[in-house]
Write a structure and sequence with these properties.
With about 140 residues, the chain is mainly α. The chain is about 50% helix and about 10% strand. It has six helices and three strands; from the N terminus they run H-H-H-E-H-H-E-E-H. The protein is elongated and about 60 Å long.
Length: about 140
Amino acid sequence: MPSKSGMKTAAQGSEPSLCNVLHPMTVRHVSGQMPPDAALAELADFYKLFADKTRVGILWALSIAEMCVCDLSMLLRMKQPAISQQLKTLRQMRIIRSRREGKVVFYSLDDDHIRTVLRFGLDHLRESIPGLGENV
């Protein structure tokens, strides 16, 4: 049964209406600056790398110095296979690089962008969580 305005209510089974664009110039402006869907998907995958504490710890350590898997294991107090698995993921995403010196493989950040992302993230958290990581 229609309401007094003649419209069906949600309780009466009508579907919600689509949103009308109230600011078409803004939508057009933003639309012209949006990356393609494929780039947004890649960006989402990139940020997923930061969703794991171990990977963030590895990245932070490598933002300070080049390290081997044994040193990373000692630093992060984790078993070597667990560190190696995370290093493999980071290498596949081209976030870190490796170099061999004899039998030892050393890892480092692929470029300074990751260092910047980590610093900006921590700076952002420091603004909202007082006392967080002030010694860094």
